[in-house]
Amino acid sequence: MPAKIAQPAASERIASAMNGWAMLILNFALLLGGAYLISLAAAEGGPMRVIGGLSALLGLIMVGGYFTLQPNQARVLILFGAYKGTVRSSGFHWANPFYSRSRGVNPHKDSGSSEGDQRNRPGRRRPGGLGLQWLSTKLSLRAHNFSSDAIKVNDKRGNPVEIAAVVVWRVENTAQAVFDVEDYSSYVEIQSESAIRSIASRYAYDQGEEHEITLRGGADEVALALKEELQVRLLKAGVIVEEARLTHLAYAPEIAPVMLRRQQAEAIIAARKIIVQNAVSMVHMALDELDRKNVVKLDDERKAAMVSNLLVVLCGNSDASPVINTGTLYT
Protein backbone atom coordinates (compact mmCIF):
# COMPACT_ATOMS: atom_id res chain seq x y z
CA MET A 1 0.00 0.00 0.00
CA PRO A 2 1.31 3.51 -0.75
CA ALA A 3 2.47 5.48 2.26
CA LYS A 4 0.12 8.16 3.48
CA ILE A 5 1.37 11.71 3.08
CA ALA A 6 1.15 13.71 6.32
CA GLN A 7 -1.03 16.78 6.13
CA PRO A 8 1.11 19.90 6.64
CA ALA A 9 0.32 21.84 9.79
CA ALA A 10 -1.47 25.16 9.33
CA SER A 11 0.73 28.20 9.90
CA GLU A 12 -0.61 31.17 11.81
CA ARG A 13 -0.31 34.62 10.20
CA ILE A 14 -0.80 37.77 12.25
CA ALA A 15 -3.25 40.17 10.61
CA SER A 16 -4.26 43.69 11.54
CA ALA A 17 -7.73 45.19 11.58
CA MET A 18 -8.77 48.80 11.19
CA ASN A 19 -9.64 50.99 14.14
CA GLY A 20 -13.32 50.50 14.89
CA TRP A 21 -13.93 54.04 16.17
CA ALA A 22 -12.56 55.70 13.03
CA MET A 23 -14.60 53.39 10.83
CA LEU A 24 -17.67 54.07 12.98
CA ILE A 25 -17.42 57.78 12.20
CA LEU A 26 -17.09 57.01 8.49
CA ASN A 27 -20.00 54.58 8.74
CA PHE A 28 -22.25 57.23 10.29
CA ALA A 29 -21.16 59.71 7.62
CA LEU A 30 -22.12 57.29 4.85
CA LEU A 31 -25.49 56.51 6.42
CA LEU A 32 -26.39 60.13 7.18
CA GLY A 33 -25.01 61.35 3.88
CA GLY A 34 -26.96 58.70 1.98
CA ALA A 35 -30.15 59.59 3.81
CA TYR A 36 -29.57 63.30 3.09
CA LEU A 37 -28.94 62.69 -0.63
CA ILE A 38 -32.03 60.51 -0.92
CA SER A 39 -34.21 63.17 0.72
CA LEU A 40 -32.63 65.86 -1.46
CA ALA A 41 -33.22 63.79 -4.60
CA ALA A 42 -36.84 63.24 -3.60
CA ALA A 43 -37.39 67.01 -3.65
CA GLU A 44 -35.26 67.91 -6.67
CA GLY A 45 -34.88 64.61 -8.54
CA GLY A 46 -31.82 63.67 -10.56
CA PRO A 47 -29.01 61.11 -10.07
CA MET A 48 -28.49 62.08 -6.44
CA ARG A 49 -31.00 59.41 -5.44
CA VAL A 50 -28.76 56.64 -6.87
CA ILE A 51 -25.65 58.03 -5.19
CA GLY A 52 -27.50 58.39 -1.89
CA GLY A 53 -28.86 54.84 -2.16
CA LEU A 54 -25.41 53.42 -2.84
CA SER A 55 -23.95 55.39 0.05
CA ALA A 56 -26.61 54.16 2.45
CA LEU A 57 -26.22 50.56 1.20
CA LEU A 58 -22.44 50.73 1.70
CA GLY A 59 -22.98 52.07 5.21
CA LEU A 60 -25.35 49.22 6.02
CA ILE A 61 -22.88 46.63 4.71
CA MET A 62 -20.08 48.17 6.79
CA VAL A 63 -22.11 47.65 9.98
CA GLY A 64 -21.33 43.91 9.75
CA GLY A 65 -17.56 44.48 10.03
CA TYR A 66 -17.30 45.56 13.68
CA PHE A 67 -16.00 43.26 16.39
CA THR A 68 -14.30 43.54 19.75
CA LEU A 69 -11.52 41.49 21.29
CA GLN A 70 -10.71 41.28 24.98
CA PRO A 71 -7.16 40.71 26.23
CA ASN A 72 -6.03 37.14 25.43
CA GLN A 73 -8.62 36.73 22.71
CA ALA A 74 -8.08 36.30 18.99
CA ARG A 75 -10.20 36.17 15.86
CA VAL A 76 -9.43 34.05 12.83
CA LEU A 77 -10.21 35.85 9.55
CA ILE A 78 -11.78 33.54 6.95
CA LEU A 79 -12.94 34.95 3.61
CA PHE A 80 -15.01 32.52 1.54
CA GLY A 81 -13.09 29.56 2.99
CA ALA A 82 -9.63 31.10 2.66
CA TYR A 83 -7.54 31.85 5.77
CA LYS A 84 -6.49 35.51 5.78
CA GLY A 85 -4.78 35.78 9.17
CA THR A 86 -5.42 36.13 12.89
CA VAL A 87 -6.11 39.33 14.82
CA ARG A 88 -4.65 39.15 18.35
CA SER A 89 -4.75 42.80 19.50
CA SER A 90 -7.51 43.69 21.93
CA GLY A 91 -9.94 46.56 21.39
CA PHE A 92 -12.68 47.72 19.01
CA HIS A 93 -11.92 46.72 15.42
CA TRP A 94 -13.38 46.76 11.95
CA ALA A 95 -12.59 44.29 9.19
CA ASN A 96 -14.09 43.13 5.94
CA PRO A 97 -17.78 42.45 6.75
CA PHE A 98 -17.66 39.39 4.50
CA TYR A 99 -15.24 37.63 6.84
CA SER A 100 -16.96 34.60 8.31
CA ARG A 101 -18.39 34.84 11.80
CA SER A 102 -18.30 31.06 12.26
CA ARG A 103 -15.87 28.32 11.27
CA GLY A 104 -18.40 25.52 10.85
CA VAL A 105 -20.71 23.46 13.04
CA ASN A 106 -20.03 20.76 15.56
CA PRO A 107 -22.79 18.12 15.34
CA HIS A 108 -21.70 16.60 18.66
CA LYS A 109 -22.73 19.63 20.71
CA ASP A 110 -26.25 20.13 21.94
CA SER A 111 -27.35 23.68 21.25
CA GLY A 112 -29.83 23.46 24.14
CA SER A 113 -27.22 22.78 26.81
CA SER A 114 -26.12 25.51 29.13
CA GLU A 115 -23.01 27.58 28.57
CA GLY A 116 -21.41 26.21 31.72
CA ASP A 117 -22.02 22.62 30.64
CA GLN A 118 -20.50 23.29 27.25
CA ARG A 119 -17.50 24.95 28.84
CA ASN A 120 -16.89 22.09 31.25
CA ARG A 121 -17.60 19.25 28.83
CA PRO A 122 -17.11 20.58 25.31
CA GLY A 123 -17.93 18.33 22.43
CA ARG A 124 -19.81 15.71 24.47
CA ARG A 125 -23.27 14.44 23.57
CA ARG A 126 -25.83 15.46 26.14
CA PRO A 127 -29.35 14.18 26.82
CA GLY A 128 -32.16 15.84 24.99
CA GLY A 129 -31.25 15.06 21.40
CA LEU A 130 -28.58 15.89 18.89
CA GLY A 131 -28.05 19.59 18.29
CA LEU A 132 -25.89 21.74 16.05
CA GLN A 133 -23.69 24.47 17.48
CA TRP A 134 -21.90 27.04 15.41
CA LEU A 135 -18.20 27.35 16.20
CA SER A 136 -17.13 30.98 16.46
CA THR A 137 -14.06 32.40 14.75
CA LYS A 138 -13.19 34.04 18.08
CA LEU A 139 -10.80 31.96 20.18
CA SER A 140 -9.80 32.35 23.80
CA LEU A 141 -6.04 32.38 24.37
CA ARG A 142 -6.48 32.17 28.13
CA ALA A 143 -5.56 29.18 30.26
CA HIS A 144 -8.26 26.50 30.44
CA ASN A 145 -8.81 23.81 33.06
CA PHE A 146 -9.94 20.35 32.07
CA SER A 147 -10.76 17.99 34.93
CA SER A 148 -11.30 14.43 33.75
CA ASP A 149 -13.77 12.02 35.26
CA ALA A 150 -12.42 9.13 37.33
CA ILE A 151 -11.75 6.36 34.82
CA LYS A 152 -10.92 2.71 35.49
CA VAL A 153 -7.72 1.35 33.98
CA ASN A 154 -5.26 -1.44 34.72
CA ASP A 155 -1.88 -0.43 36.10
CA LYS A 156 1.45 -2.00 35.12
CA ARG A 157 0.73 -5.09 37.24
CA GLY A 158 -2.78 -5.51 35.89
CA ASN A 159 -4.53 -4.23 39.01
CA PRO A 160 -7.67 -2.16 38.23
CA VAL A 161 -7.34 1.39 39.55
CA GLU A 162 -9.43 4.53 39.35
CA ILE A 163 -7.56 7.61 38.15
CA ALA A 164 -8.38 11.20 37.24
CA ALA A 165 -6.32 14.25 36.38
CA VAL A 166 -6.55 17.98 35.80
CA VAL A 167 -4.97 19.55 32.72
CA VAL A 168 -4.18 23.26 32.31
CA TRP A 169 -3.89 24.20 28.64
CA ARG A 170 -4.13 27.16 26.28
CA VAL A 171 -4.25 27.77 22.54
CA GLU A 172 -0.90 28.83 21.07
CA ASN A 173 -1.41 28.44 17.31
CA THR A 174 -4.87 29.61 16.26
CA ALA A 175 -4.52 28.35 12.70
CA GLN A 176 -3.82 24.79 13.85
CA ALA A 177 -6.61 24.95 16.43
CA VAL A 178 -9.15 25.96 13.77
CA PHE A 179 -8.02 24.15 10.63
CA ASP A 180 -6.09 21.03 11.76
CA VAL A 181 -8.75 19.59 14.09
CA GLU A 182 -12.55 19.65 13.98
CA ASP A 183 -13.08 21.11 17.45
CA TYR A 184 -9.96 21.76 19.51
CA SER A 185 -11.76 21.75 22.88
CA SER A 186 -13.24 18.30 22.25
CA TYR A 187 -9.89 17.18 20.91
CA VAL A 188 -8.20 18.23 24.16
CA GLU A 189 -10.75 16.34 26.25
CA ILE A 190 -10.56 13.07 24.34
CA GLN A 191 -6.78 13.09 23.98
CA SER A 192 -6.36 13.93 27.67
CA GLU A 193 -8.36 10.90 28.75
CA SER A 194 -6.41 8.74 26.31
CA ALA A 195 -3.10 10.03 27.71
CA ILE A 196 -4.23 9.38 31.29
CA ARG A 197 -4.99 5.76 30.40
CA SER A 198 -1.62 5.40 28.70
CA ILE A 199 0.30 6.81 31.66
CA ALA A 200 -1.59 4.70 34.21
CA SER A 201 -0.67 1.50 32.36
CA ARG A 202 3.04 2.34 32.49
CA TYR A 203 3.38 2.43 36.28
CA ALA A 204 2.40 0.21 39.17
CA TYR A 205 0.01 1.65 41.74
CA ASP A 206 2.50 1.13 44.57
CA GLN A 207 5.11 -1.31 45.91
CA GLY A 208 7.14 -1.42 42.73
CA GLU A 209 10.62 -2.81 42.37
CA GLU A 210 13.58 -1.07 44.00
CA HIS A 211 13.87 2.55 42.83
CA GLU A 212 10.84 2.03 40.54
CA ILE A 213 8.51 5.00 40.10
CA THR A 214 4.92 4.26 41.12
CA LEU A 215 1.67 6.17 40.68
CA ARG A 216 1.30 6.77 44.40
CA GLY A 217 4.94 7.35 45.32
CA GLY A 218 6.20 9.26 42.28
CA ALA A 219 3.58 11.99 41.91
CA ASP A 220 5.98 14.58 40.44
CA GLU A 221 7.56 12.13 37.98
CA VAL A 222 4.15 10.84 36.87
CA ALA A 223 2.85 14.41 36.44
CA LEU A 224 5.85 15.29 34.26
CA ALA A 225 5.37 12.16 32.14
CA LEU A 226 1.66 12.96 31.74
CA LYS A 227 2.45 16.51 30.68
CA GLU A 228 4.96 15.33 28.07
CA GLU A 229 2.53 12.70 26.75
CA LEU A 230 -0.23 15.29 26.45
CA GLN A 231 2.00 17.83 24.73
CA VAL A 232 2.89 15.33 22.02
CA ARG A 233 -0.77 14.50 21.46
CA LEU A 234 -2.09 18.10 21.54
CA LEU A 235 0.64 19.71 19.46
CA LYS A 236 -1.42 18.95 16.34
CA ALA A 237 -4.20 21.20 17.67
CA GLY A 238 -1.85 24.12 18.39
CA VAL A 239 -2.35 23.66 22.14
CA ILE A 240 0.29 24.16 24.84
CA VAL A 241 -0.01 22.14 28.06
CA GLU A 242 0.84 24.31 31.05
CA GLU A 243 0.37 21.68 33.76
CA ALA A 244 -1.01 18.18 34.21
CA ARG A 245 -1.41 16.44 37.56
CA LEU A 246 -3.32 13.51 39.02
CA THR A 247 -6.24 14.52 41.23
CA HIS A 248 -7.68 11.11 42.08
CA LEU A 249 -5.96 7.76 42.54
CA ALA A 250 -7.46 4.69 44.20
CA TYR A 251 -7.88 0.99 43.74
CA ALA A 252 -11.07 -0.08 42.00
CA PRO A 253 -13.89 -0.95 44.47
CA GLU A 254 -13.76 -4.68 43.68
CA ILE A 255 -10.18 -5.04 44.96
CA ALA A 256 -9.94 -2.10 47.37
CA PRO A 257 -10.69 -4.14 50.60
CA VAL A 258 -8.07 -6.76 49.75
CA MET A 259 -5.46 -4.14 48.90
CA LEU A 260 -6.26 -2.25 52.10
CA ARG A 261 -5.58 -5.36 54.19
CA ARG A 262 -2.34 -5.90 52.30
CA GLN A 263 -1.25 -2.32 52.97
CA GLN A 264 -2.10 -2.71 56.66
CA ALA A 265 -0.09 -5.94 56.86
CA GLU A 266 2.89 -4.33 55.12
CA ALA A 267 2.70 -1.37 57.51
CA ILE A 268 2.66 -3.67 60.54
CA ILE A 269 5.64 -5.65 59.22
CA ALA A 270 7.60 -2.47 58.53
CA ALA A 271 6.86 -1.14 62.02
CA ARG A 272 7.86 -4.44 63.67
CA LYS A 273 11.12 -4.43 61.75
CA ILE A 274 12.03 -1.01 63.10
CA ILE A 275 11.03 -2.00 66.65
CA VAL A 276 13.18 -5.15 66.57
CA GLN A 277 16.19 -3.31 65.14
CA ASN A 278 16.01 -0.64 67.84
CA ALA A 279 15.40 -3.21 70.58
CA VAL A 280 18.49 -5.20 69.63
CA SER A 281 20.53 -1.99 69.65
CA MET A 282 19.25 -1.12 73.14
CA VAL A 283 20.04 -4.62 74.51
CA HIS A 284 23.55 -4.46 73.06
CA MET A 285 24.05 -1.04 74.59
CA ALA A 286 22.83 -2.27 78.02
CA LEU A 287 25.20 -5.24 78.04
CA ASP A 288 28.12 -3.05 76.98
CA GLU A 289 27.37 -0.54 79.74
CA LEU A 290 27.21 -3.29 82.39
CA ASP A 291 30.56 -4.71 81.28
CA ARG A 292 32.25 -1.31 80.95
CA LYS A 293 31.17 -0.07 84.40
CA ASN A 294 31.81 -3.50 85.96
CA VAL A 295 28.36 -3.47 87.59
CA VAL A 296 27.91 -7.24 87.54
CA LYS A 297 29.64 -10.20 85.96
CA LEU A 298 27.28 -12.23 83.79
CA ASP A 299 27.97 -15.61 82.27
CA ASP A 300 26.48 -16.67 78.94
CA GLU A 301 23.35 -18.19 80.50
CA ARG A 302 22.60 -15.06 82.53
CA LYS A 303 23.22 -12.85 79.49
CA ALA A 304 20.79 -14.99 77.47
CA ALA A 305 18.16 -14.62 80.17
CA MET A 306 18.68 -10.86 80.34
CA VAL A 307 18.49 -10.51 76.57
CA SER A 308 15.26 -12.54 76.50
CA ASN A 309 13.66 -10.40 79.21
CA LEU A 310 14.70 -7.11 77.59
CA LEU A 311 13.42 -8.15 74.17
CA VAL A 312 10.08 -9.20 75.65
CA VAL A 313 9.75 -5.82 77.37
CA LEU A 314 10.84 -3.76 74.35
CA CYS A 315 9.00 -5.68 71.63
CA GLY A 316 5.78 -6.57 73.46
CA ASN A 317 2.45 -5.02 72.52
CA SER A 318 1.41 -4.52 76.14
CA ASP A 319 3.16 -3.41 79.30
CA ALA A 320 5.32 -6.07 80.91
CA SER A 321 4.33 -7.48 84.33
CA PRO A 322 7.43 -7.81 86.51
CA VAL A 323 8.11 -11.12 88.25
CA ILE A 324 10.17 -10.99 91.42
CA ASN A 325 12.58 -13.88 91.67
CA THR A 326 13.35 -14.67 95.33
CA GLY A 327 15.90 -17.28 94.47
CA THR A 328 18.60 -17.43 91.84
CA LEU A 329 18.60 -17.92 88.11
CA TYR A 330 19.44 -21.58 88.66
CA THR A 331 16.62 -22.47 91.07
Task: Provide an overview of this structure.
It is a single chain. This protein folds into 3 domains: 72 residues; 111 residues, Tetrahydropterin Synthase, Chain A, CATH 3.30.479; 59 residues. α5 packs across α6. The strands form 4 sheets. Strands 9, 10, 11 and 12 form a 4-stranded antiparallel β-sheet that branches. A hairpin with a 2-residue loop joins β3 and β4. 18% of the residues are buried. It is an alpha+beta fold. About 6% of the residues have low confidence. Helices cover 42% and strands 21% of the residues. The radius of gyration is 37 Å and the shape is rod-shaped. It contains 8 helices and 12 strands.
Output the keywords:
three-stranded antiparallel sheet, 3 domains, alpha+beta, rod-shaped, 331 residues, Tetrahydropterin Synthase, Chain A, four-stranded antiparallel sheet
